[in-house]
Amino acid sequence: MNTPSVSILVPIYNVSEYIERCAHSLFQQSFEDIEYVFVNDCTPDDSIEKLQKVIEQYPDRKERVKIIHHEKNRGLAAARNTALDNSTGKYVQHIDSDDWVEPDMIELMYNKAEAEQADIVVCDFVYERANSREIARNFIPEHKEDYFICIVEHNATHPCVWNKLVRRQLCELPDCRSVEGLNFAEDYQISTRWYYYAEKIVKVDKVLYHYNKMNNSALTASKTTMHYENIILLFELLGDFMKEKGLYEKHIDTLERLKVTMKAGFFMGTEDYKLMRKYVLLYRDIEMKYLKTLNRVEKIVLFLTHYKMYYLAFLTAKLIRWKVKYVNSNIHTNKFTLAFSARSI
Q1: Alpha carbon 297 to its chain's center
Q2: What percent of the chain is modeled with pLDDT above 70?
Q3: How far apart are CA 274 and CA 178, in angstroms?
Q4: DSSP per residue over 93-160, as a string?
């Protein structure tokens, strides 16, 4: 079989309610030359059985489908690596298995990549909620030297992997592989490296991806110790990468501001009082310096924890979560936090 033009990579874990819609949207693509690699990360439900039933409905696609099974659950990052290692396409497209895409997504993005000789092609996407939809536009800097810091800052450039078609050579760089064990915000770790190494990034100015915010069992649905530890590791890795590339001193202010923004956003989304107490000292040495960059509620919560009024801070955050969930409040978390917590509230 000839090398396929595009490999679609899909990790599978606990998505029984959503996998059929996702698979149908992938097999109904207008573009023909696609290889599909699904990775079963020891899902405890019937996701794989449902996927196989869908595959049978597309005999013309069936020979281009691979299902790889992990012997034990290894997490999202490892599943992404396994999918990449078992794919061969010229371009790579990551898809989350509880989301779905437009039928012309791959055709439009592949044609754009070939026409522009681009390393990365980006599209807009839409957050799909139970009673509302929110379109997320993506900005691409004009100059290569601005790619990296733009995505680091999440400055109208979303650091997700699933709205990007990426040249295989870029994905296979050692710096651009997922870090096994980093399962929350792992796409931010990958996409920042992609943007550093890319020579050319372009955009299809169209909403092509549907991001499911109705999946309460998704990895980002609630904050746990894992989320805090992963975000600490993420910033350590990012800091080391920036030092290696000679970017750290120039952008240290940006990095520190993002750490404080992340902490405030996490405190807003933490439902366990003990967890808030456990991480209250995280980035405390710099948090007051960047307090002014936060929204009003985040400022209050972080200010209260800084001066040891922990329970009052916890109750304040809990009240805001209740308002967001039940009263349709207009209060929003900082845009950078939303990049990590898109399914959280």
Answers
A1: 25
A2: 91
A3: 30
A4: EE--TT-EE-TTHHHHHHHHHHHHT-SEEEEEEEEE-SS-EEEE-----SSGGGHHHHHHTTSS----
- Rounded Cα gap, residues 210 and 212, in angstroms: 6
Would you identify the CATH topology of the domain 6-212? Spore Coat Polysaccharide Biosynthesis Protein SpsA; Chain A (3.90.550)
Query: With b meaning 16 or more CB within 10 Å and e meaning fewer, what string describes 278-287?
Result: ebbebbeeeb
> Can you list the alpha helix ranges (DSSP code H) found in 270-309?
273-278, 284-287, 296-306
252-301, pLDDT tens digit by residue? 999 999 999 999 989 988 888 889 899 999 999 999 999 999 989 899 99
Indicate the DSSP class of residue 37: E
Take residue 65 and report the two structure tokens written for it: 């489908």
Maximum Cα–Cα distance across the chain? 64
pLDDT at 329 over 50: no
- Give yes or no for a contact between 255 and 301, defined as CB atoms under 8 angstroms apart: no
Among candidate residues 245, 282, 80, the one with its CA nearest the CA of residue 149 = 245
pLDDT in tens, 207-247: 999 999 887 655 555 678 999 999 999 999 999 999 999 99
The answer to whether 323 and 331 have CB atoms below 8 angstroms apart is: yes
Q: Is 72 helix (H, G, I), strand (E, B) or coil?
A: coil
DSSP sequence for 162-196: TTEEEEHHHHTSGGGS--TT--SSHHHHHHHHHHH
Tokens matching residue 291: 């307090």
For strands 120-128 and 133-136, give the pairing: antiparallel
Q: Considering the chain, tell me which residue range(s) the CATH 3.90.550.10 domain(s) occupy.
A: 6-212
Average pLDDT over residues 64-84: 97
Sign of CA dihedral 42, 45, 49, 53: negative
